[in-house]
Amino acid sequence: MDQEKVKFLNPEKIVQKLDIKKGETIADLGCGSGFLAIEMAKKVGEQGKIYAIDILEKQLESVESLARANFLFNIETIRANLEAKDHLKIISDQGKIDKVILSNVLSENENKAAMIVQAADILKTQGKLIIIDWKATDLKMGPARELLTDKEKVKEFCLNNNLNFVKDIEVGQFHWGIIFEK
């Protein structure tokens, strides 16, 4: 586990707030080294599935290594560009995904709207879209201010695209979190 990330985002505490159930299918878009994917895989159990998706092969190798070390066989890693049109068509369970998580990826990508729309498209009816991203702080960490994503603008965009606001979630002092339902 990347201990530096745990200082900013505690995966166990975040996953506790996501109401994850055994047997669910979850897509972690921009999974990075897998700190959330691993915790979610433990929660969904053997009957569930986690799609860990990232553009960087090194990150996916980290997820696979962590999964093996934790004896988790319910994680499928997929290399994909999250900004590319129709990038999520590679997921065989389209329309059957219970939850999609976008954690710290909106601020790293230019086409935020397309990412949110495509993430929502793979959700089943009443599926949850979870978005976590950096707050603007005076600290010299995280993305440059001009790359930050405003939570209220994300809310407005999601509401205007037929997603229903569920709740804000507390995910740490440097990040905001929000959940929508399809």
Q: Under the CATH scheme, which architecture would be assigned?
A: 3-Layer(aba) Sandwich
**Structural category:** alpha/beta
Q: Tell me the total number of β-strands.
A: 7
> What overall form do the CA principal axes indicate?
globular
Strand content: 25-35%
Structural descriptors:
182 residues; alpha/beta; Rossmann fold; seven-stranded mixed β-sheet; disordered N terminus
Layout of strands and helices, then pairs:
Elements lengths: L2 H6 L2 H6 L8 E5 L5 H10 L4 E6 L2 H13 L5 E5 L17 E7 L8 H10 L1 E12 L16 H10 L3 E6 L5 E7 L1
Characterise this structure.
The structure is a single chain. The protein is α/β, with parallel strands linked by helices. It has one domain: 3-Layer(aba) Sandwich (Rossmann fold). It is built from 6 helices and 7 strands; from the N terminus they run ααβαβαββαβαββ. A 7-stranded mixed beta sheet has the order 3-2-1-4-5-7-6. β1, α3 and β2 form a beta-alpha-beta unit. The longest helix has 13 residues. The relative contact order is 0.16. The N terminus is likely disordered.
What's a quick, concise take on this entry?
The protein has 182 residues and is of the alpha/beta class. It has helices at 3-8, 11-16, 35-44, 57-69, 112-121, 151-160, and strands at residues 25-29, 49-54, 75-79, 97-103, 123-134, 164-169, 175-181.
